[in-house]
Amino acid sequence: MLAGDSEITAEKSAGTFSDSQVRQFYDPDQHCGKAIANSVGWQGKIAWDIYLFYAPGSEWIKSPPAPVDWMHQLKETWADRDRLRTGRDLVEGLETAMSKLTG
């Protein structure tokens, strides 16, 4: 989503995550961002800087399932303002969503 995005910069960024459960990939045609945008009601847009929480056992077969909770960091006018989280508000939102799913 940045002007300098490329396969090389994506590979470089992927090195910052060492958890084997984290998957990084480069999607130059933004298929994933478009599908996720559709799943949260942003038809015709591209999702990025978004945090999605799914119910246990959820599967992405042909399209992503609807998340049980989500929030974003986008300042775009089309993005849901009530789900915008930044700074401490983001941390608290992430903690609350995770607590709901993990008990």
Structure report:
This protein has a domain at 31-102. The protein is globular. 32% of the residues lie in helices and 8% in strands. With 103 residues, it is mainly alpha-helical. The chain has helices at 7-14, 31-39, 87-102; strands spanning 50-53, 69-72. The N and C termini lie far apart (34 Å). The longest helix is centred in the C-terminal third of the chain and has 16 residues, at 87-102. The chain contains 3 helices and 2 strands; from the N terminus they run ααββα.
Write a brief caption for the model.
With 103 residues, the protein is mainly α. 32% of the residues lie in helices and 8% in strands. The chain has a domain at 31-102.
**Cα Rg:** 14 Å
Distance N terminus to C terminus?
Answer: 34 Å
Net shape: globular
For the biggest β-sheet, the strand order reads 1-2
Q: Tell me, rounded to a whole number, the average pLDDT.
A: 92
- Helical content (DSSP H or I, runs of 4+): 25-40%
Helix/strand-derived category reads mainly alpha
Beta-strand proportion: 5-15%
Largest sheet: 2 strands, antiparallel
Topology of this structure?
Blueprint: H1 7-14, H2 31-39, E1 50-53, E2 69-72, H3 87-102
Antiparallel strand pairs: 1-2
Characteristic terms for this protein:
103 residues; mainly alpha; two-stranded antiparallel sheet; 3 helices; globular
